[in-house]
């Protein structure tokens, strides 16, 4: 059976790119690992943040649209994105958020402690203490997981189990929990209670991407999704991974992304995120794009 190891990346929509960079690098201390454009709408940046080497399972990405109206978090979306830290490090993050005047709440779910807060655009985030991580460091080590706000929770659960190969490991209150076989981004909760219908816009998640180990597995998933009539897109070249997209029955946009070639394919690890990187087919528009895209510090 095809089984994902967990989250590859999560992509959200925001407004101001500089505000986005300031928050995720200065407050959350993630690394800006790639500054490129939305390959489908190259007049918009695509910013990637993650660990020092941009490993799958650590990367959150953004499409900054300065004039886009605010969205509404609700069904048909990833409701909460959770980052993983070592046990005992939540006080460090509480202090850090307090210093930045960011309100947060405490949450305990499935015996794990978290703090929940919002980024400047209203995206719901959590920092979760997760056992099995590197100890004695305060840094975010990748994704803990995500909470899905599905319009049809049972149908979404079927996709997680039967298509993505996750295991249902329990229910606590209004949350059903699934586990993938990796060590980062491997815990997914589905919120079973109804919520408002989500509206796309700034401050909402655009899609969640699951890991495919290699091209062979990726193609097998495409065949399986086609057979099961999920109508996946063709396999697309995103330069840093191959991607295919489909919408599950709960309305959430899913992607399957390959682990390779990774973010060092066009930049050295030491210099990730320092220059505007474009795919080969957009290089002839570099002058135009550098002139029209917002200037970033």
TrEMBL record:
Residues 6-130, 142-259 form the VOC domain. Transmembrane segments: none annotated. SUPFAM superfamilies: Glyoxalase/Bleomycin resistance protein/Dihydroxybiphenyl dioxygenase. Gene3D superfamilies: 2,3-Dihydroxybiphenyl 1,2-Dioxygenase, domain 1. It comes from the Bacteria. InterPro entries: Extradiol_RC_dioxygenase, Glyas_Bleomycin-R_OHBP_Dase, Glyas_Fos-R_dOase_dom, VOC_core. This is Glyoxalase family protein. The lineage of its organism: Bacteria, Bacillati, Bacillota, Bacilli, Bacillales.
